[in-house]
Structures are given as structure tokens and as C-alpha cells.
Amino acid sequence: MRFSDPSLLEMALTHRSFAFEHGRSVTNERLEFLGDAVLGLAVTDLAYSSFPELSEGELAKLRAAIVNMGTLAGVAAELGLGEELLLGRGEELSGGRRKASILGDALEAVLGAVYLDGGIDVAFALIQRLFWPRMEAYSRGEGDRDYKTTLQEMAAQDLARVPEYRVFERGPDHEKEFTATVHLAGREFGRGVGRSKKEAEQRAAREAFERLSRDGGGGRET
Fold first, then answer.
1. Is pLDDT at 201 greater than 70 in this prediction?
2. Is 108 a known active-site residue?
3. Which residue in the list 32, 36, 91, 207 is annotated as catalytic?
4. Do 176 and 199 contact (CB within 8 A), yes or no?
5. pLDDT of the residue at 39
6. Can you give the pLDDT at residue 215?
7. What residue numbers bound the domain in which 46 lies?
8. Which of the listed residues 109, 139, 169 is the one where a domain comes to its end?
9. Has this prediction a pTM greater than 0.70?
């Protein structure tokens, strides 16, 4: 999209490492703060109006699944935002253009800039275009649900237990593989493998959640 004030876009793409190295005082951090609020409101409004069947708790889980660093970084990568960032030499050498935190923050800053430049309607329209496919996929049971939270709630209700995770890792530092198991009342209910501890735990939680769902809370104590 075209900006009426191109300086807003430049500010949104200016990482603090670049500003520090070039003696600038302006970074994208304030725009990131604004964009985070705009994104949260837009996704909340869209979820509320589009999914009348969802409860407050389910709406909150949907929003959390969409407004998180992983999703933001994914959207930013699809837009090629990493290639447009103004980074300091250190961040450039350490792969900053591919870091999820930098990409996610930059996307929020761009959304903040769009809001200032074009107003709330323009910002909401852009957010809907970028995030609606993911919201729709989540509503169909696809995408990155927070299965750890879902499992914890189910286990507390059905088993009066808190899930316990055990994580093992193997492989060299640059190619580690994590295996997680989740236990309830001393029994293993799920196992998952991933490239990070979080990914492995989520997959283990998903397996446990699906097992409990099939069994109707199998293992419920009386």
C-alpha cells in the first residue's frame, strides 16, 4: 500500500540496532506499541462478529492463537518484511531478518503506521486481509491451537490433575530434536517431537487432548 507520509513506513522498519549505530533517536518501538493495540482490537472485533457461537473463553483462545509472535512472524515473512528492515550490522550478521521477534515487532509497527496514515478503517481492512485466513483455519480446528492451555483446563475439570511435561533432547546444537511426554496422575497420555521444546510440548498436549476427548475424560477419578 502507498503511504501519504512515507516517513511513517521508514520509522516502522527502523530497528533500534540501526538507530543506535546511526545516531538516530527514532525507532519502531512506539509504533509497535500502537500497532499491537490496533491489531488486538481488530482481531477481537472480527472474532466477536464472525463467530457468534463461541464463548468468551473460546474467543480469548482464538485471539491468543492469532495475536502471538509466531503468527505475526509468519505473516511478516510472507510479506517479505524482513528484507525491508533497517538493521544494525550486529543484527544483520546474526540473522536478524529471520528472527521471529524482530519480524513480529516490525509487523506491529507497520500496522501502527498504517493506522496513523490511513485511519482505523484502512488498518482494520488490512488486518482482516492478512489475518482472516488464519482465524478461519483456527475455527475449523486447523492451525496452531494452544493445546497446553486446553489440556490443562480439561485435566483440571475431568481428572483434578495438572499435566506434567518431561522433555528430552538429542542431536547437535544446530540440529536439536526435542521429545516431550505429558503425564496425568503418573500416566503418560501424549508424546510429541519437535525442533523446539515448545513445539514438542504442544504436540504432546494435542495428542493427550485428543485421547482424552475420545475417551470422554478416560481416567476420571471417582
1. yes
2. yes
3. 36
4. no
5. 97
6. 67
7. 6-139
8. 139
9. no
